[in-house]
């Protein structure tokens, strides 16, 4: 993958690939990353019911590109604020572009289509 911070994940939520820039931002190496599930970098425990409801609504609306800001929990235990864009791919996988951004890590995630 290119020098941009990009992540590719499968429809089942497993990671497929990541650029070196993304791995650096996330604070992990590729072999470790490939064994993780989507959401592994969330600083809070996932709300599975809320996640399911959001995913269903998103899929029912045609799965448009999603963007926003969120706080990630890096591999070294530190938190960082990032902007992200999630784009469905023709093969059923998803491409995520991330970049660091200024902002308080305590702020909740924001998502928009």
Protein architecture, described:
The protein is of the alpha+beta class and 113 residues long. The protein has one domain (6-112): Beta-Lactamase (2-Layer Sandwich). The chain is 22% helix and 32% strand. It contains three helices and six strands; from the N terminus they run ββαααββββ. The protein has helices at 20-26, 30-34, 48-60; strands at 6-9, 15-18, 66-73, 79-88, 94-100, 110-112. A six-stranded antiparallel beta sheet has the order 2-1-5-4-3-6. The longest helix has 13 residues, at 48-60.
Using brief descriptors, characterize the structure shown.
single chain, 113 residues, Beta-Lactamase, six-stranded antiparallel beta sheet, globular
Please sum up the structure shown:
The chain is an alpha+beta fold and 113 residues long.
SSE layout:
Elements: E1 6-9, E2 15-18, H1 20-26, H2 30-34, H3 48-60, E3 66-73, E4 79-88, E5 94-100, E6 110-112
Antiparallel strand pairs: 1-2, 1-5, 3-4, 3-6, 4-5
In the CATH hierarchy, the architecture is: 2-Layer Sandwich
Give me the secondary-structure category. Answer: alpha+beta
Reading off the top of the CATH hierarchy, the class is best stated as Alpha Beta
Percentage beta strand:
25-35%
Mean pLDDT: 88
Shape: globular
CATH superfamily: PAS domain
The Cα radius of gyration reads 13 Å
Number of H- or I-type helical stretches: 3
Major sheet size, sense and barrel closure: 6 strands, antiparallel
Q: Strand tally, please?
A: 6
- For the largest beta sheet, what order do the strands appear in spatially? 2-1-5-4-3-6
Indicate the low-confidence ranges by residue numbers: none
- What is the helix content? 10-25%
Whole-number count of domains: 1
Question: Which series of helices and strands comes N to C?
Answer: EEHHHEEEE
The N- and C-terminal alpha carbons lie at a distance of: 25 Å
Q: Would you tell me which CATH topology applies?
A: Beta-Lactamase
């Amino acid at each position: 993958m290119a020098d941009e911070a990009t992540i590719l994940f499968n429809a089942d939520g497993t990671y497929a690939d990541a650029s070196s820039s993304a791995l650096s931002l996330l604070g992990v190496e590729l072999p470790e990353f490939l064994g993780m599930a989507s959401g592994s970098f969330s600083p809070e425990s996932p709300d599975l019911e809320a996640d399911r409801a959001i995913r269903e609504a998103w899929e029912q609306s045609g799965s448009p590109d999603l963007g926003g800001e969120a706080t990630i929990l890096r591999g070294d235990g530190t938190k960082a604020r990032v902007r992200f864009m999630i784009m469905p791919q023709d093969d059923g996988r998803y491409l995520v572009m991330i970049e660091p951004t200024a902002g308080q890590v305590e702020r909740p995630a924001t998502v928009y289509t």
